[in-house]
Amino acid sequence: MDAAARAVAEPTRREILRLVHDQERTVTDIADHFDVSRPAISQHLRVLSDAELVTVRIEGTRRYYQARPEGLAELTEWMQGFWGSSLSRLKIEAEREHWNQKKLSNKQRRKKDIN
Amino acid sequence: MDAAARAVAEPTRREILRLVHDQERTVTDIADHFDVSRPAISQHLRVLSDAELVTVRIEGTRRYYQARPEGLAELTEWMQGFWGSSLSRLKIEAEREHWNQKKLSNKQRRKKDIN
DNA sequence: TGCTTACGTTAGCAGTGGCTAACGTTATCG
DNA sequence: CGATAACGTTAGCCACTGCTAACGTAAGCA
């Protein structure tokens, strides 16, 4: 997941993923959509490939890259654990009310509650 | 979204988010869960705060941080556009079959199909 | 067989990121 | 009051990263 997260952090790579999502593309094809050089794109594809976010299909001298959405599974699930849980959000709000009422006693408890 | 993506790319920051998800915590409280120094955590919290992934509640000298899942909305939606669309995946598979059959004609088309 | 096309790789550079050490600030406590 | 506790901030360091320029390689083409 770490590799996927770091890969997606880059705007250029997100745009690359978008380009090869619905359609497989060659490197030069992809590179023509950006201002950076082709080797730069090649390096981005390397990162995406290592993170298993794209697949390659070699045909002669050309390499057709395509998105591999399954690579985002772990990261997506992790984010669902946050964004998705609006239930626990409400629970937190409720607990905060309770919290504010017995602030002092909690402060004491916190002292020994490290870790 | 860019800020959120970069913020989440860091394993330490993901762990911080996990810690303050169900419960608000102080900086030292958070820092005690890691090997790095407190200022380091403070800087991570700065990044998370700039990305609007956490909120702060000041109380005396202490600052209680809490996760703000809404900050991941954009990024989550973007990822859903990938991982979620298994329908388009099948569509791609079908198109690839078709693709392989008229490979040569597509090559010609691709020439002028840049951009 | 040479020439070209399509690509990967690498050195080297500038920018960025995460970290610690040291400091400054504000509230709390005695 | 002074001392302490809980922070944020910054300089400075090292590691990493994204980029270009230059190269090497393998397949297609004349």
Q: Layout of helices and strands, plus pairs?
A:
The structure is a homodimer of 115-residue chains.
Chain A: H1 2-8, H2 11-19, H3 27-31, H4 38-50, E1 54-59, E2 62-67, H5 73-84, H6 86-101, H7 103-112
Antiparallel strand pairs in A: 1-2
Chain B binds a DNA duplex (30 and 30 nucleotides) through residues 10, 12, 26-28, 36-40, 42-44, 46-47, 60-63.
Characteristics of this structure?
DNA-binding; 115 residues; two-stranded antiparallel ribbon; homodimer; 7 helices; mainly alpha
Write up this protein.
Two copies of one chain form a homodimer. Chain A is mostly helical and about 120 residues long. Chain A folds into two domains: about 1-70, Orthogonal Bundle (Arc Repressor Mutant, subunit A), CATH 1.10.10; about 85-115, no CATH class. Chain A is built from seven helices and two strands; from the N terminus they run H-H-H-H-E-E-H-H-H. In chain A, strands 1-2 form a two-stranded antiparallel sheet. Chain A is elongated, with a radius of gyration of 22 Å. The interface between A and B is large, with 41 and 42 residues. Chain B binds a DNA duplex (30 and 30 nucleotides) through helix 4.
